[in-house]
Amino acid sequence: MRLLQLLNKEHLDRHLPRHHQYLLATLTSLLIALTFFPKAESNQRSADDFIALGPLIPAGNASFDPIAALLAPASEPDSRLWLEVKPGDSLSVLFQRAGLGAQQVIEVTADSEQAQLLTRLHPGDNLAFQLTPDAHVQSLELVKTPLESWLLTRQDTGGYTLEHLLKEPEVRPVWREVQIDGSLFLSAQRNDISAALAMDLSNIFSGVVDFMQDTKTGDSFGVLYEELYLDGQYVGQGRILAAEYTSGGQTRIALRYENSDGDSSFYSPQGESMSRAFLLNPVDFTRISSGFN
Fold it and tell me: Which residues on neighbouring strands pair with residue 165, listed in sequence order?
């Protein structure tokens, strides 16, 4: 694995600016650790098992329950009414499904910020209703992903407060290697790498690799990325930390660097940006549907 071979202290000191060296030293430790750990076969998933809304969440998998990751411990069962937003659903339709009338919709959306949030529902969102004995909304949680939700809570004086809830996931670094047989995306799919991860990988190397013309059987790529877990359950894909692409005996390596403002980009081990002013493909090849060049 050439990426691991190049990430050594002597090479970094000779070629890379000092402000990049801390990041690369960290990546080296991760790669060394991953080399001696077995691949997490149980965590591999087909690209067909992912949905695009929010962080990648396995869909159609009976063993994964996106709501269960948000519930309280078993000793404190969640008594709320859960409804999933379906295509064509509106807030009033969902309230009717929960046995609530138009007056309750008006109460919950009296505040403009709350109204704006609740009128921008998307299929796959979940609503959790906590109702009072007289059929009023005590609380309403809009769950966007297992890691992000919005909670409205009824106040004694009337009205509702709005709270943005974010959960901190466990981050696990994962290293995957794939030999290409056909296209980049089909090879990734056959090796249980999501379409989103393959798309990110192609974007990283789009300035130095022409994936329309240069990709051929026998090429290979490796990628070090993050998987996110909540209470032991997989909830999505995180950032790509490093990647390599080998074609015709030449290996190109990309390493993530994030500056003090939180902006990130990818660089070669010599500190050169992977971005180019002119891409090898002037049009994003992932959006081309025609078989003609």
Answer: 149
Q: Which residues touch 137 (CB under 8 Å, ≥6 apart)? A: 100, 104, 107, 108, 129, 130, 131, 152, 154, 160
Work out the burial of residue 248: count CB atoms within 10 Å of its CB; fewer than 13 is exposed, 13-18 middle, 19 or more buried: exposed
Query: Tens digits of per-residue pLDDT, 267-287?
Result: 999 888 887 644 445 444 444
- Tens of pLDDT, residues 156-176: 888 899 999 999 999 999 999
Is the model's pTM score more than 0.90? no
